[in-house]
Amino acid sequence: MPDNLFDEYRIINTFESIKAGIVRRKYVNTDDVDRLCQIITNGWASVDFDMYYPKDYDVEIHIIAVLKNKEQQDIIINFWNEIDYQYKVLNDTEILLWKTKDE
């Protein structure tokens, strides 16, 4: 039994479980991005990540993940490559993520 809620959360939410959900529903939920960032930055309510909807894009299709740490950015980019969804690095901290697969 995990000592704290975060350890328990990490057992339930793994890269593989999040990936399986995305593959099953063929869509990335905002919650998926949030959970991925929590795993990557190792916590809740972390100042190390943020996300928001881009003004110039469709909110149904895009979300921006904000990660200050380059290694953490690489992790989310690798995850997006694994699920074969598009992304675009906007600047040093922001990555535009596609929530649907571009057929």
Distance between the first and last residues' Cα: 42 Å
Radius of gyration: 13 Å
Proportion of residues in helical segments: 40-55%
Tell me the number of strands.
Answer: 4
Question: Care to give the gist of this entry?
Answer:
This protein has 103 residues and is of the alpha+beta class. Helix content is 44%, strand content 17%. The longest helix has 14 residues.
Note the main attributes of this structure.
4-stranded antiparallel beta sheet, alpha+beta, globular, 103 residues
Give an account of the 3D structure.
This protein has helices spanning 5-12, 15-25, 30-41, 70-83, and strands spanning 49-52, 62-67, 87-89, 94-98. It starts with a helix and ends in a 5-residue tail after the last strand. Strand 3 and strand 4 (94-98) form a beta hairpin. It is built from four helices and four strands, in the order H-H-H-E-E-H-E-E. The protein is 44% helix and 17% strand. With 103 residues, it is an alpha+beta fold. A four-stranded antiparallel beta sheet has the order 1-2-4-3.
